[in-house]
Amino acid sequence: xxxxxxxxxxxxxxxxxxxxxxxxxxxxxxxxxxxxxxxxxxxxxxxxxxxxxxxxxxxxxxxxxxxxxxxxxxxxxxxxxxxxxxxxxxxxxxxxxxxxxxxxxxxxxxxxxxxxxxxxxxxxxxxxxxxxxxxxxxxxxxxxxxxxxxxxx
Length: 153
What we know:
By secondary structure, the chain is mostly helical. It is built from 6 helices and no strands. The protein has helices at residues 12-19, 23-31, 51-65, 70-79, 84-126, 130-148. Helix 4 runs antiparallel to helix 5 and helix 5 (84-126) packs antiparallel against helix 6. The longest helix has 43 residues, at 84-126. It starts with 11 loop residues before the first helix and ends in a 5-residue tail after the last helix.
């Protein structure tokens, strides 16, 4: 009795469903070299993804979900097999991404605060509380000025 291991393969649609990456993005990542060329079926010539391909694409999907640039993803993937030799570069790359995300979070909090002020403003208007609406409107204008230059947050 043979104990030959079977290797499961995936279609582009299955990989898209598992990773959340659209098929067009999968093809794009292959075309620009983020991932290695994908094997093709002998008769169909359709892309046939391996378990290894799926693992790499799952990691890429997570990096992409953090908003990481393609260049940084390329660097991250190139370094992942370098072990301790590549660790310093990986740490620096991920630390930059963390800082970038913290900045984005600050901007989102200001946007959320602005929306809340506008909500409060319109609730004051609906309640016919003109004085409250005036004060909230003034706060919203001040915050709007911050939002216009949100890169400075």
